[in-house]
């Protein structure tokens, strides 16, 4: 019965091609894609701000402006690249994965260049260098990440298999995160201070790992869902936009993901200052990274049976509620030492891990819903719109992070921050994410319409529409 649903869900596969059945190789290949992505994404999210403030000597508010400008530009680049992908024909290796192969090397090189400091240059030079290298890296990241994200919906059309891809993608990102967050502080800091040469060394090491993962993703992944030449539809921007505006699941998940990304980026950036300055223990960031990844791996075997029984929306909502309660509680416990703080926050990390595990399956669902509304299969465009919201979230988080640190009185030239600045950093790292997680809980419960039952009905209705067209 499951096999029957899986075959109906697939749009159309070329009858003249012998395509390997979906299996562990696909899941492993998709894992490697986000493994490669997140070596630099997590490095940038967690440590680029402190690199700019403490090594380049750029003020936190200026870094915030840089992040805001760059992420807004990247958001535009995402949509542009998504539309570009939807105009490409499917080749021998597929429609999306060849672009991972072509663009990954330039992406990794640009990532390394972000963390290179040329000695003896002026403050103006370092500011210009930061703007140029960061924006170039972000643009190239769009070309690889949009191609990779769009590929999920053509690897398989089965909803259970797509949830597996989402889980393995989260697993890949978590593996990169644990390496960066555990090994990163040990490599990048010397005597509790950011070191320029160590940052360059770390970027090179992570760059080598990143490109290796991209090549594994290219070799192991298989695109199965294709549109035969005779049935391929031309892009209709007006129809696409109308469909996007009518797509309530898309709009809702865009809002939830945007807010979630703000929280993730904010936590990643502020945690450095929280442990470096508030707790006086930058090395404890390694413990945080290890535990954060550990909670994901604990949640992984639970996600599939819980989704099968209750649905993606349902388990993600409960996870957000738990995270919101935990981080709000931490705000009211300002005298905790670093280790008890980490122990309590681990419960919150476990809560939001479920959202991370299923979010990419949400995206494939809204891609299907777009096809149901419009009759157009536009994986690249819809995924790029989703990525657009995440980039806006990154932009806001980067800007908010820099402005918030400045507002609470953080001063990178001081060896010891004022008590007011330390209290402000604690608030940003606890109460703010607590409120954000609770807001996402409300969005999922009251606004996102695709419950378990409605998602199953969508699969059936879409399969019927495809059969009527064939």
From TrEMBL:
Coiled coil: none
Entry keyword Magnesium: no
InterPro entries: MFS_2, MFS_trans_sf, Na/Gal_symport
Transmembrane segments: 28-49, 55-73, 99-120, 126-148, 168-190, 196-217, 250-275, 281-303, 315-333, 339-363, 395-413, 425-448
Family matches, as Pfam families: MFS_2
Keyword annotations from UniProtKB, A to Z: Membrane, Transmembrane, Transmembrane helix
SUPFAM superfamilies: MFS general substrate transporter
PANTHER family in UniProt: MAJOR FACILITATOR SUPERFAMILY (MFS) PROFILE DOMAIN-CONTAINING PROTEIN (PTHR11328:SF24), MAJOR FACILITATOR SUPERFAMILY DOMAIN-CONTAINING PROTEIN (PTHR11328)
Designated name of the protein: MFS transporter
Organism listed in the record: Paenibacillus agricola
Lineage, broadest ranks: Bacteria, Bacillati, Bacillota, Bacilli, Bacillales
């Amino acid at each position: 019965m499951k096999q029957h649903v899986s075959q109906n869900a697939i749009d159309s596969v070329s009858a003249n091609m012998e395509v390997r059945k979906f299996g562990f190789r696909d899941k492993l290949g998709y894992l490697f894609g986000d493994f490669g992505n997140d070596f630099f994404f997590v490095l940038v999210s967690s440590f680029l701000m402190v690199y700019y403030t403490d090594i380049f000597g750029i003020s936190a508010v200026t870094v915030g402006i840089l992040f805001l400008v760059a992420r807004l530009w990247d958001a535009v680049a995402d949509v542009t690249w998504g539309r570009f992908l939807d105009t490409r024909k499917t080749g021998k290796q597929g429609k999306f994965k060849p672009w991972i192969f072509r663009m990954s090397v330039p992406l990794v090189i640009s990532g390394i260049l972000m963390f290179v400091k040329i000695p003896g240059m002026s403050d103006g030079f370092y500011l210009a260098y930061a703007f140029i290298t960061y924006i170039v890296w972000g643009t190239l990241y769009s070309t690889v990440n949009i191609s990779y994200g769009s590929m999920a919906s053509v690897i398989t059309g089965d909803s259970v298999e797509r949830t597996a891809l989402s889980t393995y993608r989260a697993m890949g990102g978590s593996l990169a995160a644990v390496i960066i967050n555990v090994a990163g502080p040990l490599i990048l800091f010397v005597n509790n201070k950011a070191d320029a040469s160590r940052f360059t060394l770390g970027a090179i090491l992570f760059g080598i790992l990143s490109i290796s993962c991209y090549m594994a993703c290219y070799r192991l992944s298989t695109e199965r869902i294709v549109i035969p030449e005779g049935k391929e539809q031309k892009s209709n921007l007006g129809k696409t936009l109308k469909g996007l505006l009518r797509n309530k699941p898309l709009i809702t998940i865009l809002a939830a993901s945007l807010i979630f990304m703000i929280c993730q980026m904010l936590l990643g950036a502020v945690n450095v200052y929280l442990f470096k300055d508030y707790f006086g223990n930058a090395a404890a960031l390694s413990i945080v990274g290890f535990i954060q990844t550990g909670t994901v791996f604990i949640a992984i075997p639970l996600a599939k049976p819980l989704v099968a029984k209750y649905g993606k929306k349902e388990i993600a909502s409960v996870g957000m509620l738990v995270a919101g309660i935990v981080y709000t509680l931490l705000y009211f416990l300002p005298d905790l030492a670093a280790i008890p703080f980490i122990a309590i926050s681990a419960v919150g990390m476990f809560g939001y891990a479920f959202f991370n595990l299923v979010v990419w399956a949400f995206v494939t669902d809204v891609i299907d819903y777009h096809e149901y509304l419009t009759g157009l299969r536009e994986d690249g465009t819809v995924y790029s719109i989703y990525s657009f919201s995440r980039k806006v979230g990154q932009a806001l988080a980067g800007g908010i992070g820099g402005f918030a640190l400045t507002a609470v009185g953080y001063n990178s030239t001081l060896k010891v921050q004022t008590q007011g600045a330390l209290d402000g950093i604690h608030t940003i790292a606890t109460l703010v994410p607590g409120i954000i997680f609770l807001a996402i809980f409300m969005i999922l419960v009251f606004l996102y319409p695709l419950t378990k039952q409605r998602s199953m009905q969508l699969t059936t209705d879409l399969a019927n529409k495809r059969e009527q067209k064939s």
